[in-house]
Design brief:
Blueprint: H1 3-8, E1 15-18, E2 31-34, E3 48-52, H2 62-74, E4 79-83, H3 93-102, E5 106-109, H4 115-149, H5 154-165, E6 168-172, E7 178-182, E8 191-195, E9 205-209, H6 217-236, H7 245-256, H8 265-271, E10 280-286, H9 293-308, E11 311-319, E12 322-329, H10 336-343, E13 351-357, H11 363-373, E14 378-381, H12 387-392, H13 397-407, H14 417-427, H15 432-439, H16 443-457, H17 464-486
Parallel strand pairs: 2-3, 3-4, 4-5, 13-14
Antiparallel strand pairs: 1-5, 6-7, 6-9, 8-9, 10-12, 10-13, 11-12
Helix pairs in contact: 2-3, 4-5, 4-6, 5-6, 7-8, 7-11, 13-17, 14-15, 14-16
Length: 487
């Protein structure tokens, strides 16, 4: 209820004598406060409608009226309603002048309009408004509960809330990072937050931006905050479809798979909610030593919750310093790299790698390739293939044995220095300064070791095909060793 509503009610015969400052008549009335004190501030709160007969203010000095009105504006109250008849036959000129000077709305109550009538009217209107706000709040909560029960994403639920309050609504974490948002700030830049019910470890809030000044948030958004909190906990929790036991088992199998037909990837994919025959996308989110784990986790949460609104199926696996997301679209691939970049626009220090896979058989190698690209800050597209990925895709045990036999002379003494030198030589394309710097050896030592390697292998490393063969052999043996360690 506003001052303008009270003035417009013809049944009360309330007369507006001073309109006050700009927009003052639209100020809400929180309650009625009858008082005859010279300084009523200890008994008032913001937006109270002060009712007085002026019994303690039967004075002619303008300065006293001015000080009285100034004290009311300090609260500030919504308006002053002055009752005639008991102590004053007409409004004191000093009071009129003071209200004009300070911009306080002044209402005149004729003798036949008792305070109790005004108080009852205001209380009835406020009660009706509060009931309507509560009704809207519970209807909104019911709508959002149905959306969540139907499997709609958190972004879609927030969209319904944003429509209800005509504002931009976002879920933010304890660090102020947005996990997901919906709507637009139509009503301006005013922003407020409500705490979402959640565990002590995860303090989330609902941010409302551009809210209209005439909207009371708590009654409308209080009930739905519980729904959003529950869905957020479900979305990010260990029992949600995004992070179920089946999904964790599937992704772990993908990371250890080296083309082993005994790994039932197709069954794991079905149990996790994926279509084994569809195309796949992956997003790997990692940080450097300079990125705090809490920061990395918060940004990864924001990305995976946001992607859930775009993709039909989203699953993830968390490790120390790395979050792996596995995705399948509802309707064909479209602009994943650009979509992901939006989620990390304010986090340039995070390393994000986006990869695509055409089949389930290709997916383990795609994930391994993407994992090797993590480390450089920014959002990057993984290449379709690299040498290590090609090597890992060669499952032949005979080939592994052949490569081990080729390299065996370099480890005959058990030290492994020659094998380490060959790896550095191939990695740095024969650059002596880089090899010596990496191995902390003198150039003469490097020359001796390279002659020894060529003698033992009976190969000429000046030949490009020989260098390629040695590179592949090292990669195949390394991949086989990793497989053995994983087993």
């Amino acid at each position: 209820m506003r001052i303008s509503d009270l003035v417009a009610d013809i049944g009360l015969d309330v007369r507006l004598r001073v309109a006050g400052g700009e927009g003052r008549l639209n100020r809400p009335i929180a309650w009625c406060a009858p008082t005859e004190h010279m300084d009523p501030r200890p008994f008032l709160s913001v937006n109270a409608l002060v009712l007085t007969n002026g019994m303690g203010l039967n004075v002619r000095d303008f300065r006293i009226w001015d000080a009285y009105v100034e004290r009311l504006m300090d609260v500030p109250v919504s308006a002053l309603a002055f009752g005639l008849g008991a102590a004053h036959r007409e409004l004191p000129a000093g009071l009129l002048q003071a209200c004009e000077a300070h911009g306080l709305p002044l209402l005149e109550l004729p003798p036949e309009v008792p305070f109790v009538l005004v108080m009852q009217h205001v209380e009835q209107v406020i009660a009706a408004e509060r009931f309507e706000e509560l009704r809207q709040g519970w209807e909104l909560a019911d709508d959002c509960t149905r959306l969540a029960a139907d499997g709609r994403s958190l972004a879609e639920v927030l969209g319904r809330v944003a429509d209800a309050v005509n504002a931009r609504v976002a879920v933010i974490d304890q660090d102020g990072f947005e996990l997901v948002a919906a709507g637009s700030a139509h009503g301006g830049t005013a922003r407020t937050t409500l705490r979402l019910p959640s565990g002590a470890a995860d303090q989330f809030r609902l941010s409302i931006e551009g809210i209209g000044a005439d909207l009371v948030l708590q009654p409308i958004l209080g009930p739905v905050a519980a729904v959003i909190g529950m869905q957020l906990s479900y979305t990010l929790g260990s029992r949600s479809p995004l992070h179920s036991r089946e999904a964790a088992r599937f992704m772990e199998a993908l990371y250890v798979d080296r083309g082993d037909p005994d790994v039932p990837l197709r069954r794991f994919a079905l149990e996790s909610g994926f279509d084994p025959g569809a195309e796949w996308s992956a997003v790997l989110i990692g940080g450097t030593a300079d990125v705090a784990p809490a920061r990395l986790r918060a940004v990864a949460w924001r990305a995976r919750v946001g992607l859930q609104g775009v993709y039909g199926t989203v699953r993830f696996m968390e490790e120390a310093g790395l979050t792996s997301l596995l995705l399948q679209r509802r309707e064909g691939p479209a602009g994943l790299l650009a979509t992901v970049r939006e989620f990390f626009r304010d986090a340039p220090e995070i390393s994000v790698v986006v990869a695509e896979s055409g089949s389930l058989g290709e997916l383990p190698l795609t994930l391994q390739l993407a994992r090797r690209q993590v480390g450089t800050p920014g959002v990057h597209q993984a290449p379709p293939a690299d040498l290590a990925g090609i090597v890992q895709g060669l499952p032949s045990q005979g080939l592994v044995a052949m490569c081990r036999r080729l390299l065996a002379p370099l480890t005959a003494d058990g030290a492994g220095a020659l094998l380490e030198t060959l790896e550095a030589y191939l990695r740095h394309s024969g650059s002596a300064p880089k090899i010596c710097a990496e191995l902390f050896i003198h150039r003469n030592t490097l020359s001796y070791r390279m002659r020894k390697i060529e003698e033992l292998l009976q190969l000429d490393l000046a030949d490009g095909e020989v260098r390629a063969t040695c590179t592949l052999a090292l990669g195949i043996v390394g991949a086989a060793n990793l497989t053995g360690a994983a087993g």
